[in-house]
Design goal:
A hairpin with a 6-residue loop joins strand 8 and strand 9. The two termini are about 30 Å apart. It is globular and about 50 Å long. It contains no helices and 29 strands. The protein has about 325 residues and is mostly beta strands. It has a single domain, classed as Methylamine Dehydrogenase, Chain H (7 Propeller), CATH 2.130.10.
C-alpha cells in the first residue's frame, strides 16, 4: 500500500512545548555532532574547531565530565557503543582517523586507533553487539573495523559503491545488514558477513538523505530526505520498494524508531519534534522547540533531545512524556 505524502492530521497532543532542562557550555566553535549514551547517562559532543566533550546528564545538575583532545585534530562524528562505556570519534581533517575511547571513568582512556579513511569521517555506527564499527566520510568508502586494544586498526572490509561523501549509517539490529546514505542521493543496503560483504540494493531518492533507522525486525528502513519526506522501505521485497511516504512538517534531518517499534520520532530542520504512531502512520504529538535546530540527537526512547548551536552551546530538552 502506498500512502499519500500529505501530512496526516495531528493527534490531540500537538501543542506541547519542549521543556528546557539545561544549557551546556564549554565548546568555542559550532557543534558538529552529538550522541547520547544508550543508558541516557552521558552525552558526547564535538565542535568544528576543538576537542570533544563528555557530559554527565543523569544528575540533578548536568555538567562536563571530561574533555578529549588529540593534537592537531578536530572531530566530525561521534557515537556510543551499545554498552555506553565506549565512544568512537571520527576525524574532521584529512587524517581520516577514528579514535575509540573508554569513557566509563572520568578520565577517558584511548583503547584503539582506526586507520584507512582518507579525509573527514562524517558518520560512525556500532553494531548491536558492539564488536564492529562502520565508518564513512569524504572518500565515499565505508569501512568496517573490529577495534581491539593493541590492534593495528586496519579495516576488515571496504564497501564501495557510493560516488560522493557518506552522510549517515545504520546497522540492522541483527548486524547482518548495514544501510548507508551519501551526497549522491542514494541509500545503499549492504549484506554484512564474516567472510564477504556485498551490496544488496540501491534506494534512489530525489535529494540527500540525512538520517536512517531500521525497524526492530530489520525488515523496514526509514529514510529522512531533504525533500521533507520520510520514506518507509520494505526490505523484504525484491527489489526493496517504498511502502509509505510521510510528509514531515519539520523537514526532518533526524529520525529514530523506539526499540519497541511503536513510535517514530523526527526532528531537525525546523522548530518542532514530531512523534508518529508507526502502525497507523498518524501524528501522535508535536513538541514546539524554542527555535529551529539543525544538529540534533535523541535518546533511544525519544524523550530527550540535544541541540547543538552555532555558538558552541548545547541545549538539552524534554520532548515527550514518560512512556507508559
Amino acid at each position: 500500500m502506498h500512502f499519500s505524502t500529505q501530512a496526516p492530521p495531528p493527534g490531540p497532543g500537538c501543542c506541547n512545548h519542549a521543556r528546557l532542562i539545561t544549557t551546556l557550555s564549554g565548546h568555542h566553535g559550532p557543534i558538529a555532532a552529538l550522541a547520547f549514551s544508550p543508558d541516557r547517562c552521558l552525552l558526547a559532543s564535538c565542535d568544528r574547531d576543538g576537542p570533544a566533550r563528555i557530559w554527565a546528564i543523569a544528575s540533578q545538575r548536568p555538567g562536563e565530565r571530561s574533555v578529549i583532545r588529540t593534537p592537531g585534530e578536530r572531530f566530525q562524528a561521534v557515537v556510543f557503543s551499545p554498552n555506553s562505556r565506549t565512544v568512537a570519534l571520527g576525524s574532521g581533517t584529512e587524517s581520516g582517523l577514528v579514535w575509540v575511547f573508554d569513557v566509563s571513568d572520568r578520565t577517558p582512556k584511548e583503547i584503539a586507533l582506526l586507520r584507512g579513511a582518507k579525509g573527514s569521517v562524517n558518520a560512525l555506527v556500532f553494531s548491536a553487539d558492539g564488536k564492529t564499527i562502520a565508518g564513512g566520510g569524504d572518500d565515499a568508502t565505508i569501512r568496517l573495523w573490529e577495534p581491539a586494544p593493541g590492534g593495528r586498526g586496519e579495516p576488515r572490509a571496504l564497501l564501495l559503491g557510493h560516488a560522493r561523501p557518506i552522510r549517515a549509517l545504520a546497522f540492522a539490529p541483527d548486524g547482518r545488514s548495514l544501510a548507508s546514505a551519501a551526497a549522491d542521493t542514494t541509500v545503499r543496503v549492504w549484506t554484512i558477513h564474516r567472510i564477504r560483504c556485498s551490496e544488496r540494493a540501491v534506494l534512489p531518492h530525489p535529494g540527500e538523505v540525512t538520517s536512517l533507522a531500521f525497524s526492530p525486525d530489520g525488515n523496514s528502513l526509514m529514510t529522512a530526505c531533504r525533500d521533507s519526506i520520510i520514506r518507509i522501505w520494505d526490505l523484504t521485497a525484491i527489489p526493496p520498494r517504498v511502502q509509505s511516504e510521510w510528509k514531515d512538517p519539520t523537514g526532518a534531518r533526524f529520525v529514530l524508531l523506539t526499540s519497541d517499534g511503536n513510535i517514530l520520532v523526527s526532528a531537525g530542520g525546523g522548530s518542532r519534534v514530531v512523534h508518529w504512531d508507526f502502525r497507523t502512520r498518524r501524528i501522535m504529538a508535536e513538541w514546539q522547540l524554542p527555535h529551529a535546530v539543525e544538529v540534533v540527537t535523541l535518546t533511544h526512547d525519544g524523550r530527550y533531545l540535544a541541540s547543538g548551536e552555532a555558538d558552541g552551546s548545547i541545549e538539552l530538552l524534554r520532548v515527550a512524556e514518560k512512556r507508559t
